[in-house]
Amino acid sequence: MRAGHALALVLAGLPALCCGRGPGAQPPPAITPAQARVLEFWERFREATARRIGRNCVAAAGLYRQALELDPRHEDSLYYLGQCQRELGQPGDARRSFERLIEVNPHSGRGHLALGALFASPDPAEPLDLARAEEHFRLAHAINGEETGPMVRLAEVLIVGGRIEEARRWLEDAARTNPKSVEATFLAACLAWDAGDPARAQAFATKARGAARAEAPVKGVLSEGDRKPGGAGGRGAAPPLENPMGRLLFGEALAAVRAEAQLEAGAAPPDLEGPCRAVARVRAEHARRARG
Fold it and tell me: How large is the greatest C-alpha to C-alpha distance in the chain, in angstroms?
């Protein structure tokens, strides 16, 4: 039984303490240990969420652990504990939390995306395993095919691995699915530039500039059980992360695109040579790191 359902049962079973009772009425029954456990779980979880939103990952992680002692299979707690652990520089612990999440729910798109992001992180302190990252990004896409995050992250892995044509297809598909994705359109522009197709490269670069100006977030991942908002149980998504995709392998190269977005509409066409050479340089660095 999910904790949310259990909470509903607990609340339904609690006595109506606010209601008047006539003389001789029986005292309300005591809360059972099971009901008390569910109530304690939700107290810990809600406090953990408040601390996470307040950017206190140390406190949030401790409270998520307490919540998981009461409900070891709670998906939100596992997911957000892992994200807090990444923020705290604990990639090994984060990996175990995300692996536990997909053990609980193999169809957790956000769990596979989180693991893929961990294995495809530009942070030297985190493990770089492109084969495992690819595996999890493909699974995340298979589960939530409408989300562009796994598509872009998979394309990054393919670029580093030299599988350029397949990466191009993923990026162009992502750009069609979500024209506001700066990442997809910018990387597609760089691949066209590398292939000697300046017209196509400029078309994608112009779209990337427009997307950066709009600065709309890439579609994120869903909450508990990867349900749509308003789904079963009437619960919506938990508060989103700022960047559910994790840090992009080519994220630093996007700075030039975002700077370009500050130009007035109708300004000169985007400069591609500098940003695309930066992508090529970062690609070579990641490829060396992947080879060990």
Answer: 89
- pLDDT tens digits along 146-190: 899 999 999 999 999 999 999 999 999 999 999 989 999 999 999
Q: In 120-136, which positions are buried (b, 16+ CB within 10 angstroms) versus exposed (e)?
A: bbbeeebebbbebbbbb
**DSSP-derived secondary structure letter, 178:** -
Tell me the C-alpha distance between 33 and 51, whole Å: 27
Whole-number Å distance between alpha carbons of 137 and 117: 8
pTM: 0.80
- Cα dihedral 98, 100, 103, 108, rounded to 10, equals -30
Q: What residue type is assigned to position 245 of the chain?
A: M
Token match 């406090």: residue?
47
Helical residues (DSSP H) of the chain, grouped into ranges: 3-13, 33-53, 57-70, 75-87, 91-104, 109-119, 130-143, 149-160, 164-177, 182-194, 198-214, 254-260, 273-291
DSSP 120: B
Please report, as a single letter, which amino acid is at residue 289: R
- CA dist 19 and 22 (Å) reads 10
Spatial CA neighbour of 220 closest among 269, 191, 178, 255: 178
| Domain architecture of the chain: domains with CATH | 36-104 (1.25.40.10)
